[in-house]
Amino acid sequence: MLHSMNLFGARVISAALGTLIAAMIAAAPVHARAEAARADPIDTTMQNCFARADRSTTAGQVQCIDAARDAWQAAIDGAMRGIQNDAPDSARRAWDESQKRWLAWRKEEALLVHAVFETTRGSAYSITQANVLLQSVRDRALGVRHAASRFAPPAPPAAASSAASAASGSAASAASGGGVASAATATSVAARAQSDDARAHNQRMRPCTADAACEHAQFDLRRYTRALRDKLPAHARPVLARAQRAWTAYFDATAALGTEAERADLIGERVATVKRLSETVGND
């Protein structure tokens, strides 16, 4: 009977985490959703970890999330190396500053997350806390990886030729032709998407006050920040203020490196976190 109850509890945790992952993907920025749609190996590994019998406890599930956070951090480090190697000097310096501000914000943010979850009761909240810490690292990894891909030298057009070479060994010539056509189409679509992305990054960015999406996101951020401040104990409010100042410095260093849509996404990521923290304070 006890074993059945433990198994049921593990299934409930895993189901909740599955819903949580789906929400993470749905709330992710446009470029992040595109990457997530390709079933990123880090997300897949985390889900497989959740399903392991020896990770069915709350502590085990937290271990899975922490391992995923470490993997996303490694992805950030790899993408930053790519930017260092491939980006023009001005862009490289700008991304270095962005990363420095992000690291400074993460230190202040960890203190804020700790202050919020100190007000909760129940071990299940340790999963939520781990996920909050994971989400910002994952968002940053996807954003930096997207930037690194823009600076990377173009890949040789080998997709079509390799598909043709593989197809030449097939006995059905019609199928071979279809394979080459599919590869050529995929290459064309990828090139077109890269060209559209380059054009978007070359467009002049309007001030936030002239961009409805940016203005709306900033309004939401102010609203949820006030809600979080009102709910926090008085001694924790300076922690929130420091975290917000550090995030603003990170935002100022990063927003100009992307498009208007990516700027709104940056604010949206912060809105999602602050909203979640405001809804968590004091929960049992």
Give a brief rundown of this model.
With 284 residues, the chain is mainly alpha-helical. It is built from eleven helices and no strands. The protein has a domain at 41-151 and 207-280.
Descriptors:
single chain, 284 residues, mainly alpha, 11 helices, 80% helix, 0% strand, globular, disordered N terminus
Notes on the structure:
This protein is mainly α and 284 residues long. The protein has a domain at 41-151 and 207-280. Helices cover 80% and strands 0% of the residues. The chain has helices at residues 2-27, 30-36, 41-50, 58-86, 89-117, 125-151, 158-167, 173-202, 212-231, 237-254, 260-280. Helix 5 (89-117) runs antiparallel to helix 6 and helix 7 (158-167) runs antiparallel to helix 8. The two termini are 27 Å apart. The model is unreliable at 1-12, 30-37 and 159-193 (pLDDT under 50).
